[in-house]
Design brief:
461 residues, globular, 0% strand, mainly alpha, single chain
Length: 461
């Protein structure tokens, strides 16, 4: 493939067009991601008004749940390059096979992901979590296991529709699911409308019902777009070798996601050794950071789609342009929110709780989150660009090195041996995410210099 230089005026017009195209995908994706995140935020906000131990129980339950299913969620992101490159190449059959294989893998993953949730209480005790928190956290997980299948199927449909450019049904679904979740939390946690006050268990049941509703509503709203790919089973979709190649493409993405989430989860578990309030502070600060992270995550998803479209159309210049614009958008947004985190930590913490000690503990962590989220935005955009290019294996090295060979060891040293406590652990996030962001940026630059090509499951990945 060759890349021709464009006149300055033409390049500006092409960049403006790419900005519009990327933003038109990113904004709905961000809304959807924030919607997914808000379900956890609402659970935390509402259960926080019951008690600090109840908040800590839901916090640990959510950490455990996402640490378990993140591998499957990430593996299903193999749909990003497969569907988007198929769209760019106008290859309808390839799109259909990718979507159907995604559904099959989601069903298999659902069974595998439920199993680690069953011994939750024993695992949490093994990691020395507060005694008063473990039983409720295990109950939350056992109930939440009923939502794994619809959640993973929703991921398949979401990734496919994003790549197809059909985003409105996903946005409507998320708005409806969040409204349902708020209402069910109000009823089931506190015992309104004649229902018993179920506390932590009520929060879990609200989430389960909302996730099943997400799947049903999205299928209903997007059936016109999905029926050409789901209406009739393609015999080629059942072939084992291409399924294996899809796993070979997707598993490294899943492991990347697992390494990141498990690093945050490991630090969360270690924080639990300091007490229930420190766990609650960790969760509140992490919720804030995760909420702002949804913007670069959405931009990264849009970058994967736009880069994949360009690769499918054999247009390297457009792929390069999409990557550059994605980095610019994410970097600008995360720098702005970092300023807010650095200047208003106590005010942000007070949104979650009126407990004076908990506010103080949380306010000490929020400024550190403001620093590391800039690097977090850069690394997720880099990962998104690389997914669009079909490169999933090399970034795995960056995640392993950055999170577990740099980030977690720094967290342990500063947390337990420097006197900084939970604040020291969060500085490990800064070190780990910065190293990953730099590595992935270098990888993106290297691949664009070498040239890129479309991937196919019908031949070895």
């Amino acid at each position: 493939m060759t890349e021709l230089a464009l006149p300055a005026e033409t390049e500006r017009a092409a960049s403006a067009s790419e900005w519009r195209a990327l933003v038109s995908i990113a904004v709905p994706v961000v809304i959807v991601q924030i919607g997914l995140m808000l379900m956890g935020v609402v659970d935390t906000l509402m259960i926080g008004h019951v008690s600090a131990p109840a908040l800590a129980s839901v916090a640990l339950g959510n950490l455990y749940f996402y640490n378990v299913i993140v591998l499957a969620m990430g593996a299903l992101m193999a749909l990003d390059p497969l569907v988007s490159q198929g769209v760019g190449a106008r290859d309808h059959a390839a799109i259909t096979r990718a979507v159907q294989r995604g559904v099959m893998l989601a069903c298999v993953f659902a069974v595998a992901m439920v199993l680690p949730m069953l011994p939750a209480a024993s695992v949490l005790r093994l990691f020395r979590q507060p005694v008063e928190v473990v039983p409720a956290a295990a109950t939350y997980l056992h109930i939440s296991a009923a939502s794994v299948l619809p959640f993973l199927l929703f991921v398949v449909l979401r990734q496919s529709l994003q790549a197809l450019g059909r985003l409105t049904p996903i946005v409507i679904t998320m708005v409806a699911a969040n409204a349902l979740n708020v209402g069910l939390n109000w009823v089931l946690i506190f015992g309104h409308l004649g229902a018993p006050a179920m506390g932590v268990a009520g929060s879990a049941w609200a989430t389960v019902v909302s996730r099943w509703a997400m799947l049903v509503v999205l299928l209903a709203l997007a059936w016109r777009d999905l029926s050409p790919h789901l209406g009739t089973l393609d015999r080629a979709s059942r072939e084992l070798r291409p399924l294996g190649r899809m796993l070979a493409l997707g598993i490294p993405i899943g492991v990347q996601q697992f390494l990141e989430v498990s690093a945050f989860g490991a630090v969360g578990l270690l924080t639990g050794t300091f007490g229930a309030r420190q766990v609650a502070a960790y969760q509140i600060a992490l919720n804030l950071a995760a909420l702002t992270f949804m913007v670069p995550f959405g931009v990264a998803a849009a970058a994967a789609v736009r880069v994949g479209h360009a690769v499918g159309a054999v247009d390297v210049a457009r792929a390069r342009r999409a990557a550059r614009i994605a980095y610019t958008i994410a970097g600008t947004f995360m720098s702005a929110t970092a300023i807010v985190f650095l200047t208003l930590p106590r005010e942000l913490a007070s949104l979650y709780t009126t407990d004076v000690e908990l506010v103080a503990l949380t306010a000490a962590l929020i400024p550190i989150a403001g620093i590391f989220q800039v690097f977090d935005g850069a690394q997720t955009v880099g990962a998104g660009v690389l997914r669009g290019l079909g490169d999933t294996r090399v970034p795995l090295i960056a995640m392993l090195s950055g999170y577990w060979l740099i980030g977690v060891p720094v967290s342990v040293v500063l947390g337990f041996y420097s006197g900084l406590g939970s604040r020291g652990m969060w500085y490990g996030f800064v070190a780990g995410l910065a190293s990953v962001a730099i590595f992935l940026l270098m990888r993106v630059r290297t691949l664009f210099r070498r040239g890129v090509s479309r991937i196919s499951l019908e031949t070895p990945v």
